[in-house]
Amino acid sequence: MQTMKITEIRNMCVSILMRRGVGLADAEIIVDDYIDAELRGKRSHGLVAFSVALGGLEKRSRYEIQIDKGCYLFIDGKGDIGHIVARDAINYCIQKAREHGVGLAGIKNILRFSMPGPIAKIAADHDMIGIVIEYGGKAFMTAYGGAEAVISTNPLGVAIPTADTTSILIDMATSEKALGFVTLASKLGQIIPDTWGIDKSGNLTTKPEDVVAVVPFGGYKGYSIALALEVLSGPLVGVPVGLQGNLQNRGALLCVIDPSIFGVRVEDFKRNVSQLIREVKNSRRLEGVSEIFIPGEQGERRKIKILERGYLEIEDPLMAELIKLNERD
What we know:
Blueprint: E1 2-5, H1 6-18, H2 24-39, E2 64-69, E3 72-80, H3 82-100, E4 102-110, H4 116-124, E5 129-134, E6 156-160, E7 168-172, H5 179-187, E8 197-198, E9 213-214, H6 220-233, E10 250-257, H7 266-281, H8 297-309, E11 311-314, H9 316-327
Parallel strand pairs: 3-4
Antiparallel strand pairs: 1-11, 2-3, 4-10, 5-6, 5-10, 6-7, 8-9
């Protein structure tokens, strides 16, 4: 295990991207997403996944807004970086929600943008509700009862403003565990629970290197949600999915809702949400449970704590990978 200042890691990763043709402003946005994931404990989408950001850069083009009508717009990413396109799209949606009460954006043909939750949180930071669905790009997950990969993990992000300092922040894949955690365990030589994924024979396995597909969370319920999200972030925006999925052609659906759309004052909405949160957190706990958390709360606390100390702890294999990326021309 090694330690490294957050600023040093950030500068190194920004440099890696810039040497591959990414401009400074875009590189900083991309790197901040991966570091934010690391800080929040979403390590599946943290530094272990940074190398994924380098894929497809040589084919990058600039996205284009093809439809812009009323409360909605449609973006052809043209192979652009998802981190950048998704941020611009959520801001377009915020503008439209201010005017129409709701803003909707469909996106096709983009590279990945790490996690949908932080994109949705941009809306919450403007006192709006953000909902972001990202097509995972490839069949990584089984159907309920299936023995091979046929759909993707299709992460969902939802952010809701409150009267307190912290928003409700949901960021989740529809698999039992995000595929990135399997990748992380493999790189670190660790075993995994036998509930995460199956091997080529269709059997659940504890060996991350043998995983050929992850399984949906919550049995048939998680599978049903995954299937719906795949349709909303794929066929709806003209992106091939299922066995025709392509990591270089991902889709997304973003929605921003103004809480006052139905006549409720924004401050009343936020106060009512905070009241609900207090009731949830103060509800009776099971034996051995010290605290009930709201989605995103633990990650926010972890982020604050690590930022205060100023450095990250990075396993030797991950540090070696970053150094190797940094040494390449």
